[in-house]
Amino acid sequence: MPLTLVTGHLSLVTFSITFVHMSADSIIRLEKVSIFQKHNMILVNVNFHVDKGEFVYLVGKTGSGKSSLMRTLYVDIPLAQGDAHIAGYDLNTIRRREIPYLRRKIGIVFQDFQLLYDRSVNENLFFVMRATQWKNKKEMQQRAQEVLDKVGLATKSHKMPHELSGGEQQRVSIARALLNNPEVILADEPTGNLDPETSEGIISLLMDISKTGTAVIIATHDMHVVEHFPARILRCENGEVIDSALATQSA
User: Fold this and answer.
1) Is a pLDDT exceeding 50 seen at residue 57?
2) H-type helices in 116-195, by residue range?
């Protein structure tokens, strides 16, 4: 939108300001985004926003673009086309040195847990805290206990990962994602290696976390949990992302 600034009575300076049209509650906004892997277009014309505390599924067949979209959100794949904002950062203009600061606002949960198997649960959490500039040992211990309490593992802090079940290991992964009070959790197939009952417990936990104000996006092909815990759905299909919220509005 062009604006004209009058300086005294002598000169006029014309300049442009780009306004970001996000609601006060939006944490993620994508407009006309296309996602590429190398030179191959994976998704085209992606448009959606996610608000604070919203719980959203990202579904689609294997190879449909779910993981590529998630990786774009945490800047593992650079944005090639369109406008994208997440947790206050513009993915078009973000600098390399800013990426670690963005990722502190994002908690990432992986299908395969990605724990350090030669270290205890506490040491897994301390490793992340040290990497994100925590210094005070007492505060680190307190925060580790807080997130373990939140995921139901208050008594497991000294266990080694191999001593835990798959569901417990995923809960450690979620606790790790919560350490820096993220604004968004991105969970990529968090129930992919779990049995149905354990999967339900993980989705229920993530849904409870969203109710505290943290936005949660879960990429999944597990339609059992989608049906059991209904929520808004973003569907990757034929190179596009179809938003169930828009489909409901137009119905």
Assistant:
1) yes
2) 121-131, 137-150, 166-178
